[in-house]
UniProtKB/TrEMBL annotation:
The keyword Nucleotide-binding does not apply. It is a multi-pass membrane protein. The gene is si:dkey-183c6.7. InterPro entries: Ammonium/urea_transptr (IPR029020), Urea_transporter (IPR004937). It comes from the Eukaryota. It comes from Dicentrarchus labrax. Keywords: Cell membrane, Membrane, Transmembrane, Transmembrane helix, Transport. It holds the Pfam family UT. Belongs to the urea transporter family. This is Urea transporter.
Amino acid sequence: MWMDTKPEAEEASRSRASLSRRVLNSLLLCTGDMEHLDKYMQDKLFVLQLAVWGLRGVARVILANNPLSGALVLAALYWASPWQGLLGTLGVLASTLTAIIIGQDSAEVSAGLHGFNGMLVSLLMGVFSSAGDWYWWLLLPVCLGSATCVFLFSGLSSVLDRWDLPVAVFPFNIIIVLYLLCTGPDNPYFPHHPATPAGALEPNSTELIAVEVMHGILLGVGQIFACGALGPSLLILGAVLLYSPLLAIHALLGSAVGTLAGLSMAVRHGSLYSGLSGFNGALGCMAVGGLFFTFSWRTHLFAIASAFLSAYADIALSNLLGTVGLPACSWAATLTATLMLLLTGSLSAYRIPIGQVMAPERNMHSRSQWEAGNTVERESTDV
């Protein structure tokens, strides 16, 4: 009897191992850039392709290129505010469709590169609007502003490509500042709340609450999408984790660094608690910590330095632009990441060409393969 049950036990063990391996492989297909999905969608309906392109555009805001991550982010926005979710959806669709109509590069469109700026513009218009939710007239500037991002993206890319620099969110930052300058707080059709400088004095200042500061670190990831709710922010962090665990670690680390920088400059407690002090640091840390540079201990320290620089630059710009009621948006992280990409020296050897940027884990794997190939080539040459 023992001899009969032993092969059956071994077969059951192999079957369980095979099932676990299939489940793991299926989960791995949902991570990273999901390049296999693009091949699968080539002969599908245009509406389905547009949905995937739009979701990639949503994920591009958090420096990811994964439609499932985009779906999680969109779910988080609808969870936090259905109105904001609607505006974000409309913004990414308006900019993506504009890019298709005017004949932008199909590879850029399918990768979501023409969607994320439009989404950010629409979200910030909704956040700063003082007309309240479900103010339908706001859909007009949302569509126009999102569409205009495509023209700015196309124009800036022809200039920045000479230095192999990404356009990033320059169009969003430009459009939202122009919109707020055009309308003003007392506009009869599109009024908005004036921004408050980060260093503004609080009349009824109280002691700092440590738990709220810790919450602010998590909210710093959500504030990349102008989302200040804890649950949706955790879901957005999960979307980053799905794309790349390394990127998620740098997002939290950068937000913590930004919060620490805010503490050192005694910014308003509201900025610390709401995550506004952390999101530029998160973006700066993510951009350098494995996305545009291959991850190593040097680039990790470089990413922390980028987070500090982004956070302090954000405080300075918030105090400057806040005097005229304008937000600093993500100017600090965008300018800092661009500056870091222009650096020369030993760190430039870790930089990844913009056209070859993938998930950080894939970047590390590609670099290790390249170094292994060079080692074999040198050994064969020496022989």
